[in-house]
Design a protein that fits this description.
mainly alpha
Amino acid sequence: MNINNQLLAGLVVLLVMSVAFNIYQFIQLKRYQLHNRTKASWHEAMNLGNPISLFLWWGLCSGAVIGILVGIIELFI
């Protein structure tokens, strides 16, 4: 496989992971909105005590930052 095919395959994998993260986080945000009426703290409502949820939030945020940086670099260079 040449470099373009490898890059395309990597981008497809990242896109699928991003969609999965976003679906999970959407569910978490809806749970937070539901628990917001019960005055639970946002840490509890977002389930940040769970290592999986914490990892997914970290992956979503870091992926967004890296994606924005790469997009800006590709746009201007």
